[in-house]
Amino acid sequence: MNHSSQEWASQAQRPGQPQYHPQTQDPYGQAPAPAETLIEVPNKRLHRYDKVAPGERTVTIRQAGPGANGEPLAYVHVPQDAPKGGRRARPPFTVSGPNGEPLSSVRSVADGVYEVYGGDGAPIGRITRRGGRILPWPRRVHWSVQPAQGGEPLAAEVGTRKGWTVFLLISPLYFVCWAVMAAQGAVWLLLGEKGEAKKEAAWEMEPPTWTRWRQAGGDVAVEYHTGHKYRLASARLDFRLACAQAVLHVWDRR
Asked: How far is it between the farthest Cα atoms of the chain?
């Protein structure tokens, strides 16, 4: 299967297919939205989607940031019986608006490749994930978002080079500290202090997570630091595509 951006984008614009008609004119054809939006996408229920009660929403995407009251912006729905494909093939999911209106649907079509459709079934973009590695040479996890209208995709790598360099340098010290904490936790457990044992076991060092999506040499369209929060620049990426990418990205986090 050829996943080239040009061919796929041309398929999205074939005559006779329903198209998403924005209320404003911009490069990505999105509806009116604030110039910048901070959203929060929790991920615990994504990892346990098969345990969610039937009829319940899997995840609620909420507005975050100063002055925000956590208003729901969208809801993520993952079928309970969907097979778990790991990071290379997340199960299909849909995103609906705060009033239940369908916004988008996402499905895996290949290893690390996801097609995103609007609420009317028209393709609106493609998201690709390339896994990271240590050997034979280090490579960070790479994401790209290709809007269906064509143009240059938005690309991002998880963590900065400096961040990963520091992380690798201090990792040996972390493992020594972790071993000490684990030993202390075992002692507390033998003494019957389960609460203290959990505190010792909960200590961990998070790898670099700063991720920024943008075109080559362009401004940042989506930015993630930590805390499951994403900063969206609405003029640079369709909100539906941004939400789909945020869900797939936060699914990788623990």
From this structure: 71
- Looking up tokens 């240590």 gives 134
Pair 245, 127: CB distance under 8 Å? yes
Question: Which pairing describes strands 142-147 and 36-40: parallel, antiparallel, or unpaired?
Answer: unpaired
| Token representation of residue 201 | 């076991």
Find tokens 């896994």 and name the residue: 131
In 67-101, which positions are buried (b, 16+ CB within 10 angstroms) versus exposed (e)? eeeeeebbbbbbeeeeeeeeeebbbbbbbbeeeee
Short-list 116, 32, 33, 128, CA closest to 76: 116
Q: What is the pTM of this model?
A: 0.75
Give 64-76 pLDDT, tens digit per residue: 988 888 899 999 9
What phi and psi, each to the nearest 5 degrees, are found at residue 124?
-120, -10
Tens digit of each residue's pLDDT (9 = 90 or more) over 141-173:
999 999 998 888 999 999 777 766 776 677 667
The distance in angstroms from the start CA to the end CA of the chain is: 32
DSSP state of 86: G
Q: Which two tokens stand for residue 28?
A: 């990505």
- Beta-bridge mates of residue 143: 129, 156
Would you say 80 and 49 are in contact if contact means Cβ atoms under 8 Å apart?
A: yes
State how far the Cα of 78 lies from the Cα of 92, in Å rounded to an integer.
7
What would the two tokens of residue 7 be? Answer: 């061919």
Residue 19's SS3 state is: coil
